[in-house]
C-alpha cells in the first residue's frame, strides 16, 4: 500500500515527505527544512532509505564544499530554522506512536556524520 500524503521518513535526522507517483509507479521523498529541494525516488518503500541517504549525503557535501548552511531559516525574525518548527509539530504525534522524536533525531544525526560508519536506520512515520 502506498504511503499516505502525511507519511514522513526521517533520514539523518531530516524529515522527508513521502508520496506515491502514480504515473511513474515510484515512491518519491522530498526533504523538508533544507535550503534547496532535495528529492529521491525508489520503486519500493524499502528502497527509499538508501536513495534518500545518498541524496542527503550528496546535498550536505555540496553545501560543505560551498560553505553554506544546508538548513532553511524560518520566516520569523528570530533567526531560527524551519526544521525546528517542523520538529515541534512532529514531536507529539511521534510520541503517540511510542517514538521519542528527539532521541531518534540525535542518534541519526550522530551516526550520519562522516566517518561514523553505518547510519542509524530511517524511520517511517504516518502522522
Structural summary, described in words:
There is one protein chain. With 127 residues, the protein is of the alpha+beta class. It has a domain at 7-80. The protein contains three helices and five strands, in the order E-E-E-E-H-H-H-E. Strands 4-3-2-1-5 form a five-stranded antiparallel beta sheet. Strand 1 and strand 2 form a beta hairpin. This is Putative HicB family RNase H-like nuclease. It comes from Acetobacter lovaniensis.
How many DSSP helices?
Answer: 3
Residues in β-strands, percent: 15-25%
Order of helices and strands: EEEEHHHE
Q: Which spans of ≥5 residues are poorly predicted at pLDDT below 50?
A: 1-5
The biggest beta sheet reads: 5 strands, antiparallel
State the end-to-end CA separation: 16 Å
Give the overall shape, derived from the CA principal axes: globular
Rg, rounded, reads 14 Å
Helicity, as a percent range: 25-40%
The class by helix and strand makeup works out as alpha+beta
**Main sheet: strand order:** 4-3-2-1-5
Q: What is the residue-mean pLDDT, rounded to a whole number?
A: 88
User: Total strand count, please?
Assistant: 5
Organism: Acetobacter lovaniensis
Protein name: Putative HicB family RNase H-like nuclease
Amino acid at each position: 500500500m502506498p504511503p499516505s500524503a502525511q507519511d514522513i521518513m526521517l533520514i539523518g535526522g531530516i524529515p522527508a515527505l513521502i508520496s506515491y507517483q502514480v504515473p511513474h509507479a515510484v515512491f518519491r521523498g522530498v526533504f523538508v527544512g533544507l535550503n534547496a529541494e532535495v528529492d529521491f525516488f525508489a520503486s519500493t518503500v524499502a528502497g527509499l532509505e538508501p536513495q534518500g541517504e545518498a541524496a542527503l549525503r550528496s546535498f550536505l557535501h555540496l553545501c560543505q564544499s560551498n560553505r553554506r548552511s544546508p538548513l532553511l531559516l524560518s520566516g520569523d525574525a528570530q533567526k531560527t530554522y524551519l526544521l525546528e518548527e517542523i520538529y515541534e509539530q512532529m514531536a507529539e504525534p511521534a510520541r503517540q506512536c511510542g517514538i521519542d522524536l528527539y532521541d531518534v533525531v540525535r542518534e541519526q544525526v550522530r551516526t550520519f556524520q562522516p566517518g561514523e560508519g553505518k547510519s542509524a536506520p530511517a524511520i517511517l512515520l504516518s502522522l
